[in-house]
């Protein structure tokens, strides 16, 4: 028998304040990857202060795509995440949508529970989309920022991080990135361990990540990459709290919709549709040693 083609694992972190309409490229792609009209969608509004309202918003949005099913899982206490019935809903789903709010609610109420284990197993099996906006995006990786207490730009301390859901390693997502001027805190996060790749996602913008490797920018605006792999001087370990620390050779990239970035090699593999055609790129010329 021919070997069946494995469907990719897909993550879609969104920077918050997204256009919640059926015309959104992010939601159209989300549902398409989840199986279109055969999608089995699960909305998780746990991070929100108004989970009932948020669940209704997303159920109304996803209903426009006529999926096979839409269900809501709200975890108010950790014991709720022990339910075998909920774990079965997770096992059958093809799309999870984590709403925004407070990411610490998601990690503290879901982390390490049977629901968390079921989600990880379902995602790793392939053919599943895990999406989240704002706090729902921040919680997706192994590591997440959850607080910045009176954070001072480019000063040590004040930034608090903890473990997220662990669906992707060695990355950290920061959201509302341009609108809230969060570049300094993402640089701070990367400085704590330059193995981490920082991804700052602007509002109404997302990343479509396949198999934790290729990331395509989708939506309206930009994703900022903070890459610490070439850092030469890093004095964050020596600086006193609330004092500046030296940090050199941080790589900073701006990715626009359609650009494809390899998270493993940390290189652009497709410059996207807005790249100039080759005919408009001047060829390099050489001059002799005495030339201008």
Describe the structure.
Mean pLDDT is 93; it is low at 286-292. The longest helix has 13 residues, at 51-63. The protein is of the alpha/beta class. The protein has helices at residues 25-34, 51-63, 84-92, 103-110, 114-124, 135-138, 183-192, and strands spanning 9-14, 40-44, 69-72, 95-98, 128-133, 143-148, 159-163, 171-174, 197-201, 205-210, 214-219, 223-227, 251-255, 260-262, 267-270. It has a single domain (9-280), classed as 3-Layer(aba) Sandwich (Rossmann fold), CATH 3.40.50.880. It is globular, with a radius of gyration of 21 Å. Helix 3 (84-92) runs parallel beside helix 5 (114-124).
Secondary structure elements and pairings:
Elements: E1 9-14, H1 25-34, E2 40-44, H2 51-63, E3 69-72, H3 84-92, E4 95-98, H4 103-110, H5 114-124, E5 128-133, H6 135-138, E6 143-148, E7 159-163, E8 171-174, H7 183-192, E9 197-201, E10 205-210, E11 214-219, E12 223-227, E13 251-255, E14 260-262, E15 267-270
Parallel strand pairs: 1-5, 2-3, 2-4, 4-5, 8-9
Antiparallel strand pairs: 1-10, 6-7, 9-12, 10-11, 11-14, 12-13, 14-15
Helix pairs in contact: 3-5
